[in-house]
Amino acid sequence: xxxxxxxxxxxxxxxxxxxxxxxxxxxxxxxxxxxxxxxxxxxxxxxxxxxxxxxxxxxxxxxxxxxxxxxxxxxxxxxxxxxxxxxxxxxxxxxxxxxxxxxxxxxxxxxxxxxxxxxxxxxxxxxxxxxxxxxxxxxxxxxxxxxxxxxxxxxxxxxxxxxxxxxxxxxxxxxxxxxxxxxxxxxxxxxxxxxxxxxxxxxx
Length: 204
Hints:
Layout: H1 6-24, H2 28-43, H3 46-49, E1 53-55, H4 67-75, E2 79-85, E3 91-95, E4 102-107, E5 111-116, E6 131-134, E7 138-139, E8 145-146, H5 152-162, E9 168-172, E10 193-196, E11 199-202
């Protein structure tokens, strides 16, 4: 249930809708062309350069592509964690061991996710991450991130905060998705950096 005031709620929905409309017009070639640049920019981040464990995700559809980044981190010997969506929208975690370690999971006819095939670490598995790569639709100059609205990563961020864990929080976006203002709820937490194909923006 949303705790936003109605005008903030409609602002978030309108922003989300506008960004998704733009993303839905992207072709597979568009997504592929930006994927390598996004990986190169992300790998320049000191927080990723020295990370031993990174919680990430597999991009789907027209999301900014993460596969090149996952493979680069894995090739470096980084322990890469990938999310497994649970029935209550919380996230479990598994280990990425290369492209062959992913399995397709159909979500009630809505979309197909790629998840790690191996054993599960439990929702607390994310607490060992030095950096957490977050999906998103936008970020503003304060580092406030607009998610898709499912709440899965709100739970992850709350879990990290409760445990006193302090990983680097990094959102991966297209250049046009750095915006003037993202409406926020009291529980929303800013990210530390946003990576786009053209560069890195830091918020701390």
